[in-house]
Design goal:
Elements (H helix, E strand, L loop, with lengths): L3 H21 L7 H13 L6 E4 L5 H8 L4 E5 L2 H10 L5 E3 L12 E7 L7 H14 E12 L4 E7 L2 E8 L3 H11 L1 E9 L12 E8 L3
Parallel strand pairs: 1-2, 1-4, 2-3, 4-5
Antiparallel strand pairs: 5-9, 6-7, 8-9
Helix pairs in contact: 1-4, 5-6
Amino acid sequence: MRDLHLDAIRVSYDRIADAYAEAIFNELDGKPFDRDLLTRFAAATAGVGPVCDMGCGPGQVARFLRDLGVDAFGLDLSPGMLDQARRLNSDIPFHEGDMTALDLEDGALGAIAAFYAIVNLNAETRLRVFREMARVLAPGGLLLLSFHVGSEVLDVKELWGRPIEMSFYLLDPATIGVELTRAGFAIEELAVRDPYAPEVEHQTRRAYVWARKSAD
């Protein structure tokens, strides 16, 4: 059965893929907190096996991790975004995939970085995604998750002058912690930061969760 919610997300990101890549691909240059966090993540996942940049968009996180020596690859729902990722990162593998039904074996991944990968997902879909993440992570595997902090749902009809049909969820870190725990993760660390300047990013607070799958 097709998931019309995910279909709408895919179509919307396909429409804006080139503009999104132009605006976002170099975003980490202006985000020292995020660079430091990803550098820690790279060190923490050295030698653990493949690391997936899940919901990779144009691949800026995979690029940063690969440059630090991580065995990183990207996965995204949008073929248009994957075209941009491959254009910008010819040395990194990128694959089309649905986070609610990953085409990966149980325990196949050493770690997952999921920067803003859940921002368009409602609670029911998020739980399916978190359970899939837990399934494909090896025992003891690490998840680094980021999202916008708040309680609003923003229904957006246009980005970069192009029509889209997506909701953007601002999320409560405590709620996300409960959902991750239900999916089989243990929360190890939570960090929340204020936004950078408007020219760097949208003006929302950002949360970063380190969560680990049980080693059992």
